[in-house]
Design goal:
The protein is α+β, with helices and mostly antiparallel strands. The protein contains 5 helices and 4 strands. A 4-stranded antiparallel β-sheet has the order 2-3-1-4. The longest helix has 11 residues. It is globular and about 40 Å long. One of its GO terms (molecular function) is monooxygenase activity. Keywords: Monooxygenase, Oxidoreductase. It comes from Kibdelosporangium persicum.
């Protein structure tokens, strides 16, 4: 269950044409530099409908702990490894107000498929 008040960061990353597969591979390889931070609740990588557009959603226990991470050497090294793939992007921050779990929440992929 998602606790209320979670600090959420959403990044839009515009990836250089032809570099999408390599970007995805590197993002997976270095993701633990974010998710292993004690204040990180998890992150997701999603491909947008526009060519080369990706969204990264990252949840944190609170804003001060995220800001601490954002200025850390750990984060700067992470950004350096992804920078060669980027042609642009933006960041939006927000606080989770309410979480309503869906019916499929907590089901395995097989259970979800069987229910379809």
């Amino acid at each position: 269950m998602m606790p209320e008040g979670v600090f959420r960061v959403m990044l839009r990353m515009d990836i250089k044409p032809g570099m999408e597969n390599e970007f995805e591979r590197v993002w997976r390889e270095i993701g633990d530099s974010v998710t292993s931070h004690p204040a990180n609740l998890g992150q997701w990588l999603a491909r947008g409908d526009e060519a080369g557009v990706y969204y990264i959603v990252s949840d944190w226990v609170d804003e001060p702990r995220f800001r601490e991470f954002e200025t850390s050497d750990r984060h700067l090294n992470h950004r350096k490894k992804l920078h060669p793939y980027r042609s642009g992007g933006s960041m939006t921050t927000m606080r989770v107000v309410t979480y309503l779990p869906g019916d499929a929440n907590g089901k395995s992929h097989q259970e979800w498929e069987a229910a379809r």
